[in-house]
Write a structure and sequence with these properties.
By secondary structure, the chain is α/β, with parallel strands linked by helices. The chain has ten helices and nine strands. The strands form three sheets. A five-stranded parallel beta sheet has the order 2-1-6-5-7, with helices on both faces. A two-stranded antiparallel ribbon has the order 3-4. Helix 8 packs across helix 10. The radius of gyration is 23 Å and the shape is elongated.
Amino acid sequence: MATRKVAVITLFPEMFRAIVESGITSRAIEQNLLELTLINPRQFTSDKHQTVDDRPYGGGPGMVMRVEPLAAALEASLVALGCSRQQARVIYLSPQGEVLNKKSIDTLLSDGPQTAANFHLVLVAGRYEGIDERFIEHYVDTEISIGDYVLSGGELPAMVLLDAIIRKLPGALGDAQSAEQDSFETGLLDCPHYTRPEEVLSTKVPDVLLSGDHKRIEIWRLQQSLGRTWLRRPELIEALELTELEQRLLDEYIRQHSNAS
């Protein structure tokens, strides 16, 4: 599989050290599973202050990022990625965008011919009051949000998106099954996990996990995932078509929970 290529347009490239130097994402970059380029719009200004923003037309608080430095940064990003504008998807991290979820991540990673351009992504991290709407209208393909709240800039959302993408690249995780068993991969939340010692804080590990019976353990984990999802995110359960086994396990979990209450 070809190396995934991503460029990030940001006024604070130093923030991405967390991605480049730490953990799974760092190893994926070292293994050439992903090529990350950071482009600062200030590099494409002509004044001594490297001004990338200006006051909003119509008045109001804050400043707005200007089109020209962003457009030049986008052109530099395409050069760095080695692709044309048609071969890249430009994503603006914005609270006004569609909320990031498993489906949108899978779409960005799709290998289908209709989404082949998604091998190359340009992430635009805004600042201040946002960026000039004309840049969005002319260049941006997708706006993505990580939730219904406002941050100081798009860098943290960009890192969240990068982390979510990288961990799904083949070879990025030490155990290929880790990503498959994550929360949301099956539409359910993950089951509880335990490690040594066998008893801590006056609580023992559930006996089934010590049984060595892999089939029982698999069924227990499925039931716990179903039950935890029912308790914490019932709308996820409602969106699923449960198998006969899954429905039986969930019904049993609900009865046990009701009796315990």
